[in-house]
Amino acid sequence: MMPQSILRQTLHSMLLQHNKEGQILIFPAWPSDWDVSFKLHAPRGTTVEACCANGSITKLQVSPPSRKGDVRILALGPA
Fold first, then answer.
1. In angstroms, rounded to a whole number, what is the distance separating the alpha carbons of residues 15 and 9?
2. Which has the closest alpha carbon to 57: 13, 26, 17, 19?
């Protein structure tokens, strides 16, 4: 059985990553046929809230709004 902290970090990384340029990468490893809703923290005091249903992003909120330009939505991959 996997410890909760490892499972939590794995799910976080599937949903949100960041790079050294300050970009926030959304859904970098999330299968397109998995529905999800999340609110996660990113660097520089950023919070990202998003929903994906039926392979489409139905909600994306970034706080503070000044960081929205740093968000990159990656293609949802196959399951």
1. 10
2. 26
